[in-house]
Amino acid sequence: MTAAEIQFADSSSGYSWLALAQGVYNTQVDRWDDSTCGGGLRWQIYPYEAGYAMKNSISNGGLFQLAARLARYTANDTYADWAEKIFDWCASTPLLNNQTWNVADSTDVDNSCKTQGNNQWSYNYGTFLTGAAYMYNYTGKAKWKNAAEGLLNVTLNTFFPSEYGGNIMSEVLCEPAEACNDNEILFKGLVTGWLGLVALVMPSTYDTILPKLQGSAEAAAASCNGMGNNTCGVRWYPKKWDGWNGMEEEIAVTNVLASALVNTKQTAPVTSSTGGNSSSDPNAGTGDNTGDSNTESTITTGDKAGASILTIAFVGMWGGMIAWMVIGG
Question: Region annotation Disordered: residue ranges (predicted)?
Answer without folding.
Answer: 268-301
